# Entry
Amino acid sequence: MKIDRKGNWYYLDSPIRRIPMVKLFASVLRFEDNTFYLVMPHEKLRIEVEDVPFLVTDFHLRDAGKQNQSILMSTNLNEHIVVSRQHPLELIHYQNNPLPYLTVREGIRARLNRNTYYRLFDHLTFGTDQQKGPLGVWSQGTFFRMEPEQV
# Structure
């Protein structure tokens, strides 16, 4: 099995088009020792993942206002995750480009698709009360930096 960079799942190089089947596989997906596995009661199968297994395709803001707001992210499998300390939003370098990723569950991330990332730009703010410092977003009282660190 394989998951391509766009979040498409394949079995024997054929796309799996039935979303309920993909959701079933996703529910048993685990990340251990830098490898993805489908873990079932009597079997553990290695799965190839080009980047990450999921994409964030949309988001909604709840309770607007800097530190009071929550950002609810939706994945390509219609999972809904609130950005928080348990589910951080962070920039990670992929092929020398800083890209935004959301931790979905332990060791498993989703990459924000381009449209979602650009929409998120409209909500960037400074991490401090002064009009300076890193740009990012607030969710669940935590600031998530959305600009690359200067090296």
Q: What stands out?
A: The domain at 2-49 is CATH 3.10.540.10 (duf1285 like fold). The longest strand covers residues 54-62. The first helix runs from residue 19 to 27.
